[in-house]
Amino acid sequence: MRLRKGYSDGPQGQVHWRQAGNIGTPDRSDLYCFSPAPFGSIAYSNLLPHLANARGVVAPDYPGQGGSDGDDVTPSIESYAASMVATIHDVSKTAPISVMGFHSGCLVAVEVALTLQDQVEQVVLVDVPAFDPETRAKYLPMVGAPFEPSTDLQSVAKSWDMAVAKRQATQPLDQCLALFADTVGNGPRINATFHAAFTYDVESRFAALSHKTSILATQSSLLEPSRRAAALISGAQLVELADVQRSVLDENAAVTSAAILQALG
Q1: For the chain, which residues make up each domain, given as ranges?
Q2: How far apart are CA 121 and CA 109, in angstroms?
């Protein structure tokens, strides 16, 4: 299934998105997928076609990430959500939607649900970075500081490692290179989404969520934080995917998408 690309206008300029499936199907809400740092919507390239077999899906780029406008190197989850809401109103209008996120995208999904309230039917969160305040404060300076580009290739070695070296066993090389280009193309904003995630008030915002929420936890370093998220969100259903240990959105795209669609019913 080919992905369609397009743009919507947001408070910080144009928002780029990827879309698959039939948007606006009367009996099934459109699903908006929010991406994990440091990648944009390209991270969902292998997942969207699976999800689109059941419903229309849209994956937007945050402001200043991927193909979206924006120049803030220290944004907030709230500012990201404002642009995502504008995109939703452009693409799906006022029709009911569902939202899902992976890693830091979980925080954006929660904030969008809190902003749109009754327009959001369900929330699905996969591997939630619900770190406690002490952990967030400890790692913020390490992962969330504005990046300083240079002509030294070593300056982007970390991005190469995340996008290519650690993925070559589970993804084709061309996809790995596309992820690397997507990341380094953000320039000084490479760490922007990490900054937004590690400055987000997880405790109070998660506690405010009253939507039907499913949390899918793989066997990863975010297993315990995901369990913590389930405790913070009233009525959340926790599903642990015991057989998924790596490459959640790619090598295990079929398994992950099936779990997401099952959670959505």
Answers
A1: 4-143+190-264
A2: 12
- Going by DSSP bridges, is the β-strand pair 57-60/97-102 parallel, antiparallel, or unpaired? unpaired
The pTM (predicted TM-score) of the whole model is 0.97
Superfamily of domain 4-143+190-264: Alpha/Beta hydrolase fold, catalytic domain (3.40.50.1820)
Q: Residue 168 carries which side chain, given as an amino acid letter?
A: Q
CB atoms within 10 A of CB 249: 24
d(CA 60, CA 137): 28
Exposed, middle or buried: residue 108 (CB in 10 Å: 0-12, 13-18, 19+)? buried
Q: Are strands 212-218 and 57-60 parallel, antiparallel or unpaired?
A: unpaired
- Reference 218, options 103, 130, 107, 113; nearest CA is 103
> What's the token pair of residue 106?
């979980």
> Could you read off the pLDDT of 46-99 as tens digits, one per residue?
999 999 999 999 999 999 999 999 999 999 999 999 999 999 999 999 999 999
Dist. CA 121–CA 144, nearest whole Å: 32
Going from the C-alpha of 21 to that of each of 2, 42, 75, 96, 187, the distances in angstroms are: 9, 16, 31, 16, 32
The DSSP string of 121-146 is: EEEEEES-----HHHHHHHHHHHSSP
Question: Which of 131, 10, 127, 19 shows the shortest CA–CA distance to 72?
Answer: 10
- 124 three-state secondary structure: strand
Cα dihedral 53, 21, 94, 85 sign: positive
Integer Cα distance of 173 and 206 in angstroms: 37
Residues paired with residue 32 on neighbouring β-strands, in sequence order? 58, 99
Closest CA to 61 of 189, 239, 203: 189
